[in-house]
Amino acid sequence: MQALSANRNAVRPVAKSARSVAFVARPFGTKCVRPAMGRVALKAVNQQATEEKKGNTDSAARQMLGMKGAALETDIWKIRVQLTKPVTWIPLIWGVACGAAASGHYQWNNPTQIAQLLTCMMMSGPFLTGYTQTINDWYDREIDAINEPYRPIPSGRISERDVIIQIWVLLLGGIGLAYTLDQWAGHTTPVMLQLTIFGSFISYIYSAPPLKLKQSGWAGNYALGSSYIALPWWAGQALFGTLTLDVMALTIAYSLAGLGIAIVNDFKSIEGDRQMGLQSLPVAFGVDTAKWICVSTIDVTQLGVAAYLAWGLHEEIYAAVLLALILPQMYFQYKYFLPDPIANDVKYQASAQPFLVFGLLTAGLACGHHVNTLAAAASASGAL
User: Fold this and answer.
1) pLDDT of residue 67
2) Does 185 score more than 70 pLDDT?
3) Cα torsion at 233, 235, 240, 245 (round to 10°)?
4) Can you tell me the distance from the alpha carbon of 292 to that of 267, in angstroms, rounded to the nearest whole number?
5) Where is the signal peptide (predicted)?
């Protein structure tokens, strides 16, 4: 919008829209001879309004997903959803699918097994991850007041009573689904219930004092990484097959890559962690050292898994696919993350993590194929 001149100019509207009015200044008694300028101004105002509307839409979406930069929502149910951080459900849901694939017994076109898989995903994602995120926000409310003051608890948009109720509802709901899955699958040992109680305990000591594992960069990040990789994998595999020690060892090792991903998230919270005395790796070692620890754990772990698939399970094709998925991650590390891990953390994760999660599925499929190969060999040997 142009500024008004100081010599008795009047304001005349030259163009209107549903969103704005553009004005140009002209002296009394003269004709407006510059309508083009009005159109330019109108275009600029409309463009700004469009960008603001888009920004509001983005903020609302971030609010519902529990991401940084969220809108300050007042609806209590939207706030409850935000507390569970739906964006964090995805790795757990994916991990359950990887575990089902690793079992070697999941049938992708079986309606009953599809229903069981979806129930297991509901247990691992909205309920147990939601419980983990809510209890983490509760114990992190002072840190979030520094790092992410828009979050529901530090902003005061949800009461203590409502938070505690939500924690118990999500925890008991997850345990109830685990018990249901054990009954549904006909387990003589309630393995789903056992895994759920174990995982819930890890979630609690990760956030709550006196242990509060997240106070230690190594222990906290590994607990987080294993919760995103090993635990959902175990749930999916135990639901449809047998959870074996070799696969448990493989996924525990694979969780080191999850440790690296957890370190990525620490770079955005350096200031708050330092003020609150939390020894995240970027705080303990500095940004430059921590970024190399981060990419090393991600890359070395996946390369080790690829080697195990090739020479341990003799699944050379799956190993080659996994290697092909590791290389783009390395490229994005050098392009985005290593130059500036603080500014480019989100851009790096958006670019590289799809390759990591498909690599996880590749490892699961390799394990499932190996199980079926051994079963077929045993069957053929018995027939002889």
Assistant:
1) 57
2) yes
3) 70
4) 13
5) none
Quickly state the pLDDT bin for 22 (edges 50, 70, 90). very low
CB contact at 8 A, 225 and 88: no
Cα first-last separation, the chain = 89
CA 210 to chain centre: 26
Q: State which of 191, 226, 241 marks the end of a domain.
A: 241
In the chain, beta strands by DSSP E: 10-16, 21-26
Q: Is the pLDDT of residue 248 over 90?
A: yes
Q: Does residue 251 contact residue 102 with C-beta atoms inside 8 Å?
A: no
Q: Report whether 21 contacts 15 (CB < 8 A).
A: yes
The span from the CA of 285 to the CA of 96, in Å, is 34
Please state, in angstroms and rounded to a whole number, the distance separating the CA atoms of residues 309 and 315.
5
> Model-level pTM?
0.78
Torsion of CA 17, 23, 29, 31, to 10 degrees: -70
Q: Phi and psi for 10 in degrees, rounded to 5?
A: -110, 165
Orientation of helix 89-103 relative to helix 230-240, angle to 10°:
40
| Total structural domains within the chain | 2
264 and 345 in contact (C-beta within 8 Å)? yes
Amino acid (1-letter code) at residue 9: N
- CA of 338: how far to CAs of 155, 211, 272, in Å? 33, 32, 22
Alpha-carbon distances, residue 303 vs 234, 259, 316, 349, 361 (angstroms): 21, 15, 13, 19, 15
Task: Phi first, then psi: give them for residue 353, nearest 5 degrees.
Answer: -65, -30
Query: 293: closest CA among 280, 303, 304?
Result: 280
5 CB burial (10 A radius; 0-12, 13-18, 19+): exposed
Question: And the tokens for 133?
Answer: 């995120």
Token pair listed for 86: 């739906």
Q: What is the pLDDT of residue 367?
A: 96
Domain match, 83 and 192 both = yes
Residue with tokens 């080191």: 256
Q: Where a domain ends, among 241, 273, 297?
A: 241
d(CA 173, CA 180): 10
Do 275 and 160 lie in one domain? The reply is no
